[in-house]
Amino acid sequence: MAETFDVKLAGKVYMPDPAYRERSWTGDWETAYKRYLDDPDGFWAGIAGELEWFAPWETVREWDNPYARWFTGAKLNITHNCLDRHAASERRNKVALIWRGEDDENERILTYRQLHREVMRFANALKGLGVGKGDTVCIYMPLVPEQVVAMLACARIGAVHSIVYGGFGASALNTRIRDAQAKIVITADVGFRRGKRVPLKTIVDEAVVNAPSVEKIVVLRRTKPEIELFSEMEVDFEEIMAAAAPYCEPEVMDAEDPLFILHTSGTTGTPKGIVHTSAGYMVGAYYTTKYVFDLKENDVYWCTADPGWITGHSYIVYGPLAAGATVLLTETTPDFPDPGIWWRIVEDFGVTVFYTAPTVIRMFMRFGEEWPNRSNLDTLRVLGSVGEPLNPEAFEWFYHNVGKDRCPIVDTWWQTETGMHMITTLVGEPMKPGFAGRPVPGVMADVVDREGNPVPPGIGGLLVIREPWPSMMRTVHNNDERYRKYWTTVDSLYTAGDLAVKDEDGYIMVLGRADDIIIVAGHNIGTAEVESALVSHEAVAEAAVIGIPDAVKGQAVKAFVILRQSYRPTEKLKGDLSYHVRMSLGPIAMPAAIEFVDALPKTRSGKIMRRVLKAKEMGIDPGDISTLED
Question: Which in 199, 452, 458, 544 has the greatest CB count within 10 A?
């Protein structure tokens, strides 16, 4: 367990236009947070009351650490709130989904009424394949509207979906299918990425060989001529849709019935199947989508993630659709055919809320501000960040070059396990580059030592959550002991596994994983802090650091650095970077070695896999790398 340690805090503050706070759903943070603290159950009941239920709850929360039940006794179906209540209202012809393929000419639009009908048809098609309440369906698809339809169709009939990102290989897919015991696999013939075809169906064929639970494979055929479906297991997506009845009553779900299993990215050890349930997850995803992004009726909302990750579950599909938003989806990547494609999409569709990852922002920094400057980004109203900590330099670039010094940035900290945003700077509140912000009203986050005692401002410690929240995971599939460890590492507190520090105002800076600590001569050095110092140098686009053995100090810091395009690797630059870190953090944090690289090993969700770098450096087996992007 990491000890506490001193952290140098940044001091810059950006004040948003006061109109943002005046018009926001939340108002000022202090008032909203006090409202939660004064009556936690009443606070969550008020949020839940904005949604529709088939039967009301008896109690808001039951807590027997580490197990929670939320909205006990309530009956619901999440798709009723995502679809039916909009399709039966003045939103029926409002655009629900806008989809843009890699080809600029390839676009589709679905209104809430149209999406509702598509989901009901496919729900009946799944029933026709023998899928019922409690069965598990694996979805392995590219980012197309049918992926969203498949998710919602599963939820419609009470089937548990287990989505596997379409970039995974056969071994990773097989592991997840077997763990979830999936009855059906839904896929497509191909996905498109940077102008190339990704053969998804071929990967599925290999993955199901040793997956005896799979009874049928549903294939969306996107290419012409259509591929042949050979085995008795294979059926065509469009054909079973066309043959299905048009209306499907939503399955009545208990509040604690499982909604989905999602395997974490597995940066350490084997992937964990995180289980989320119906009511609490719905309330958490809806609440944070509406209140953190301050979604308004006319917003065009774009989250650049994929539904294969928790960000896509909560902030592409369930949260935005429950809130009645217009959601943009695109199969495009940020640098193909050029680094201006995403900014042209913002201009083309008038995107107002843009939610992306720090790793993408740093990639754009590397290409330079000329690309966003080529497009009109005046429609943007709110910017968001998700994934690794948003370092101050990336914050500044995002704020000035994309937000044009006027858009608030909500830097969100949360996890697959939490299901919803836990810490951020709400729209309208003062922004501090490097700090995610304060706990979202409804969440009790803190920074503590190993005994669970709060640490003073400026002292790093473990990031924990003190009280349960509605969208918390309920267990780890087939491994409840692994779930309990989250609540027993620090007694009775949810331990996120991240290091953090608070400032005097209660703003929290997330420093990185607790296991990403380098102990140099007895001093604990956070990898994220050194990386942030490196990236603050004008020559550096991205950086990752690891600890390497040192005969005197125990460990020393080694840095892997990607340079911006206008810089070239030299020994002098290595010296300049080391000196820059020394001046930023002190001599103890100086890299003993710097290696210039063209790329860093990352998961497909954008997290740097430092243990892969460490394994390569040490000449050892890196273990499970099924989540490696390349």
Answer: 544
Two tokens at 25? 């759903």
pLDDT at 588: 77
Helices (H) and strands (E) in the chain, counts: 21, 33
The residue among 48, 44, 606 whose CA lies nearest residue 311 is: 606
Take residue 279 and report the two structure tokens written for it: 């009511």
**What does 181-245 look like in DSSP terms, one character per residue?**
T-SEEEEES-EEETTEEE-HHHHHHHHTTT-TT--EEEEE--SSSPPP--STTEEEHHHHHHHS-
Which CATH number among 2.40.100.10, 3.40.50.980, 3.40.1000.10, 3.40.50.970 corresponds to the domain 111-251? 3.40.50.980
Nearest to 290 by CA among 420, 463, 475, 98: 420
Q: What is the token pair recorded at 300?
A: 């065009």
Domain boundaries, the chain: 5-77+258-512, 111-251, 516-618
Identical fold between 5-77+258-512 and 111-251: yes
465 phi, psi to nearest 5 deg = -115, 130
Instruction: Note the pLDDT tens digit of each residue in 574-591.
Output: 999 999 988 877 777 899
pLDDT tens digits, 396-441: 999 999 999 999 999 999 999 999 999 999 999 999 999 999 999 9
Using CA atoms, how far apart are residues 403 and 14, in angstroms rounded to an integer?
Answer: 13
Nearest to 529 by CA among 501, 562, 568: 501
Identity (one letter) of the amino acid at 500? Answer: A
**516-618 maps to CATH 3.40.50.10800:** no
Cis peptide before 225 (omega within 30 of 0): yes
The percent of residues above 70 in pLDDT, for the chain, comes to 93
- State the pLDDT at residue 104: 66
From 61, 2, 1, 10, select the one nearest 458 (Cα to Cα): 10
Looking at 3.10.20.30, 3.40.50.2300, 3.40.50.12780, 3.90.1720.10, the CATH number of the domain 5-77+258-512 comes to 3.40.50.12780
> Do 7 and 529 touch, CB atoms closer than 8 A?
yes
CA angle 219, 223, 229 (to 5 degrees): 40
Residues in the chain: 630
Determine which helix (DSSP H) or strand (DSSP E) holds 140, and give its type and residue range.
Answer: strand 136-140
The residues pairing with 498 across neighbouring beta strands, listed in sequence order, are: 513
